[in-house]
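To assess whether the prediction recovers the assembly geometry, we first specified each molecular entity separately, as shown.
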Amino acid sequence: MDIEEAPESLKHIKHIVLILSGKGGVGKSSVTTQTALTLVNKGFKVGVLDIDLTGPSLPRMFGLENKQVFQGTNGWIPVYIDSSKKLSIMSLGFLLNDRGNSVVWRGPKKTAMIKQFIKDVAWDKDLDYLLIDTPPGTSDEHISIAEELKFANPDGAIIVTTPQNVATSDVKKELNFCKKVNFKPLGIVENMSGFICPHCEECTNIFSSGGGKLLSEQFNIPYLGNVPIDPTFVELIEVQRTSEETLLGLYDKANLKPLFDEIIQKVLDQNIPSRTELLN
Amino acid sequence: MIAVETRVNKGIEQLDNPHLKAPEPEHCPGPESENAGKGDACEGCANKDICESLPKGPDPDIPLINQRLASIDHKILVLSGKGGVGKSTFTSMLSWALAADPDLEVGAMDLDICGPSLPRMLGAEGETIHESNSGWTPVYVNDNLGMMSIGFMLPESDSAIIWRGAKKNGLIKQFLKDVDWGRLDYLIVDTPPGTSDEHISVNTYLKESGIDGALIVTTPQEVALLDVRKEIDFCRKANIKVLGIVENMSGFVCPNCKGESQIFRATTGGGKALAEELNIPFLGSVPLDPRIGKACDSGESFLDLYPDSPASTAILDVVEALIDSVENA
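The predicted structure of the complete assembly is given in tokenized form:
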């Protein structure tokens, strides 16, 4: 028998946002990372769940490789990025012994893992946002998360794409998936949109440009903005391990921060009511 | 000849858990396995009786697959744990490059069910698959270059394929069993990112007929290498020979000032260091060229359009190294 209400572990979370894209390598995890950092900078308390089981990138993005998940009285305790406890992460990457180990799982096992991630993680009681980072495609992980969130009333999904046709045609499939499972697209982010040459400041559209904007017009979805390729962001991720400063502090000075401020503001301006108000 | 689309859809619906009445539990040994109905997870599973009574032993379709693929000389998988590193781009380049030799017969198969890109990249979008007595006829982009993808079977190009693993496995099996490739020198198999159903299935089905090996595609940054390590670990576990690593998108030359920059910086040494660490041949690196993406979008061969570009030279070098390692194996 199906229980027709949100899982207990998610009941107190005010907003749930998914990060989706049909295509791989377009920057779902970097958009998730930057969305999380931006939201924390705006004063929210954020949790991030990584359901990319065969290629979890978030532990590395947040500089948390080799951290472990502990079992608390209320369930698995997510990993906090620093002592301020404003940002916590849960990923399968934390549960592997060796970073090179592969997780060779067929569908049913992935489904069970996602169920556990949804039911057994003890997120903070006053969490404002839960971001869910997903793998590419429209398969087991996506069907499972849609089933788990069926009664949880998520805010919707941020769709990430890159500008070229090969990518947008996969993203169209993802938008049709959203329609089928009732995830509301909150908007489209066009990532890797141009590269500014550090030598001459000339912007080259390596993966062409405008594909995201076009897509948003075709599907009548808000366009949140385009993010250029910025090698300093990749570098920031890599240096955080050796740096004195925290990731939050480093990101505060990053070139992309003002851009993401704008993008996230466009989502916040949609004034989606808190789930807790709706439920109570 | 009739379009197979409806038949495919019907066939696939039957393939999705043909006999089971409940979803498989977490540690399901697999309804076709030796332990079906006897494993620990089977206790209390609604399917227990069904699984116990199903026929056991090796998949009866494997001999059929072997027979079908017997006239293919070399089978190469293109793999990467990470998405968007250029698996499909490289598959198309490799296919174009091989098919440039009129004496070779080449086939390209797209196993990315949820995001098929090969039809567009090889300029065959909008084609449909036809069926004859001898099986499904591949779509021919050239006299000597055929291809097969789920992209040819969709009612609309935007339709989402929202399938769980079991259903994808069914289609992969049909691709291997029912496609009438004829005699081929090379079959290049493009895969989706990850190490899951598609990868396990293609390995299981091809094990007996033999895979020459896998070409691993990566990009230089550590976040990508991390996933690629997992894919190589998978190859070791599955006994697939790694033919080599190619590093894609490494370095970018500004068309304006000719200054070179590292877009995806190889902070940990990139593909080359990984190849050395894991003792795998490093086949070369291909620079980022905006014209590659454009050629792929329009389905043309980048190698034909810009034969003198540094990227073309780099790609051809990799292809040559790859062919050497396959022919001399």
